[in-house]
Amino acid sequence: MLQNVQKYTAMDALARSLHEQIINSIPTGYSKEEKLYILNHIGSHLGKDIAALEGNPTGNHK
Predict the structure, then answer these.
(1) Is the dihedral of CA 33, 34, 39, 45 positive or negative?
(2) Structure pTM?
(3) Alpha-carbon span 54 to 56, nearest angstrom
(4) How far apart are CA 42 and CA 22, in angstroms?
(5) Considering only CA atoms, which of 23, 20, 52, 62 is closest in space to residue 39?
(6) Can you give the C-alpha Rg of the chain in angstroms?
(7) DSSP-assigned letters across all residues of the chain
(8) Which of 20, 28, 30, 50 is paired with 57 by a 20 to 30 Å CA distance?
(9) Do residues 7 and 1 touch, judged by C-beta distance below 8 A?
(10) 26-59 in b/e burial notation, b at 16+ Cβ within 10 A?
(11) Predicted confidence (pLDDT) per residue in 4-62, tens digit
(12) How far, CA to CA in Å, does 39 sit from each of 6, 17, 22, 24, 28?
C-alpha cells in the first residue's frame, strides 16, 4: 500500500512539473486568445494519446 501511495505521489509530482513546464514555455506577450489556442491544441493531442492508450482510436476518451 505504501509503495502504491509513493508511486502515485511521484506520478502526481511529474504531472504537475510537466504542466508547469508547458505553462512556462508559452512566451510572455501572447494574448489570452493565443494562450487558449495553444493550450486547447495541446489538450487535443493529449486526448488522442489518452484514447490510444485506452485502445479507443476514435479519440473519445473516458
Answers:
(1) positive
(2) 0.75
(3) 6
(4) 9
(5) 23
(6) 15
(7) -HHHHHHHHHHHHHHHHHHHHHHHHSPTT--HHHHHHHHHHHHHHHHHHHHHHTT-TTS---
(8) 20
(9) no
(10) eeeeeeeeeeeeeeeeeeeeeeeeebeeeeeeee
(11) 999 999 999 999 999 999 999 999 999 999 999 999 999 999 999 999 999 987 656 55
(12) 29, 16, 9, 12, 14
Q: Residue with C-alpha cell 484514447?
A: 51
- Report yes or no: 6 and 14 within 8 Å, Cβ to Cβ: no
